[in-house]
Design brief:
- This is MarR family winged helix-turn-helix transcriptional regulator.
- The protein is mostly helical and 144 residues long.
- The chain contains six helices and two strands.
- The protein has a two-stranded antiparallel sheet with strand order 1-2.
- Helix 2 (35-46) packs across helix 5 and helix 5 (96-120) crosses helix 6.
- The protein starts with 8 loop residues before the first helix and ends with a helix.
Length: 144
Amino acid sequence: MSKLDIACACGRIRRASRALTRLYDAALDGAGLTTTQFSILRSLARLDGASVTELAAAMGHERSGLTRLLRPLADAGYVQMGSGVDQRSHGLRITDAGRGAIARALPGWEAMQARVETCLGTEDRAALFDLLERIEAIDAKAAA
């Protein structure tokens, strides 16, 4: 067996992630949000007033990439980007319109959550989340 014939963990996880993202994007389409935008808004609702750096760390994003993702949300009036001492310290606030966008998207998101739970079952879903947490820990160890 060639080394090229061995399944790549990264490739398999990325392929599964793309498939799941397509399903969630379709579920959220009626609300006018992508899965990434919904995730950012939900995280920001929990961390209201966070800097871009703090939000990026909480979400596992790179700060520069997150800034690009925030721009359309700010343009839509869902996020207010306050002025800080520098770019890294901008206070981000979710607006009432952003909370409304979450509320519109929530039924589709909940339906997809239920579909995933039904397909995987409670035990496999919990095992998947445990495995994903362990994979994220590999990155944390590498960064240390």
